[in-house]
Amino acid sequence: MKNTLLLIALLSSTFIHAQIVTDRPDQTESSSTVGAKNLQIETGVLLGFEGENEPSTQQILAPTTLFRYGLNDKFELRFVSQFESIKVGADRFQGIADSEIGFKVELGSNEKTEIAFLSHLVLPLGTEELTGNRFGTVNKLSISHGFNENVGLGYNIGYDYFGEGDGSLTYSLALGVTVNEKVGIYVEPYGELVDFDKHISNFDAGFTYLINENVQLDFSFGVGLNQKMNYLSFGISSLILSTEK
Questions:
Q1: Which one, of 197, 196, 193, 221, lies nearest residue 207 by Cα?
Q2: What's the sign of the alpha-carbon dihedral 14, 11, 59, 231?
Q3: Half-sphere exposure (CA, 13 Å, Cβ side) for 146?
Q4: Residue from 194, 137, 188, 138 nearest 169 by CA
Q5: 115-153 confidence digits (pLDDT tens)
Q6: Is 114 exposed, middle or buried (0-12, 13-18, 19+ CB in 10 A)?
Q7: Residue ranges of the domains in the chain?
Q8: What is the CATH code of the structural domain delimited by 2-240?
Q9: What's the pTM value of the predicted model, to 2 decimals?
């Protein structure tokens, strides 16, 4: 059982002994679902800065929340909502960002590998200053491998399209290490090929702390490798188990 829990947690920086497998704080989506009739709420706050020239852009997500509900043991429904505040120079825009609705489905697994597919539809329902005014889609193939009880590797390959241009190829690669029964750490390069032309490369790292079998805290930070960007994030996730037998 312990090896199985490690395997399904690789992409989410949740590690062995954990009863909750999250899709935060890293960029790599986990290759597992929340289980039949279970509800999982993953929420957090992010403070980020980006921009090569002045004025730089300050972004605050407070909160950003992912809701996950399992229709069965292999398929979950997902909804993303966030309050966003963006400051460019002296100008600030804040409100609700565009929402996302979608699903994740487990495609297969064995003792060492697990594969899932995730797809979201971006809904242009945000505040006037923050909406993209177009429908979009986010898609990821999620794969995880367990090396032993303490080390695992997970990665995503994806394609995003937001209503204009050619869309973007995305990637992430998360290496997770178990510290003890409560703490796990990860490191992760990630990025995208915007319009199949411009490469944006980033790196992040962080840790998770399991309060109990159904509640988990997390912290992460990230930096841009070929552009000016950095962020700090912390959050909490809670798994509400179904009472149905």
A1: 221
A2: positive
A3: 24
A4: 194
A5: 999 999 999 999 999 999 999 999 999 999 988 888 999
A6: buried
A7: 2-240
A8: 2.40.160.40
A9: 0.90
